[in-house]
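Folded chain entry
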Amino acid sequence: MLWYCKFKWHPETTREQVTKRIVRQHEQGTNHPERIKGWYNLAGGGAGFLLVETDNPHDLTVFLQPYMDLIDFDVHAIYPVNYQEFIKQIQQEPQTAGVR
């Protein structure tokens, strides 16, 4: 399962705090980089989102909890949509068939 983890640093959080925490968790082996399918920061810093793959929501919680004193997370389960397949599917549904 893929998880969209939107994040925003708490107002008092500093870059130094975040980078130290990331390195500490990395050295402890708890970041599981193989599960991080995407990491995007917003321009200006202090916010962004991660795409994390795990079938166990507990594993996701264990990954995020060490950061929660510094960062607020908004987490949602997501799934990919193939545009062409989606269009074919909805065009075959009775309520949209023939609608242009």
Q: What stands out?
A: The chain has a mean pLDDT of 94. The radius of gyration is 18 Å.
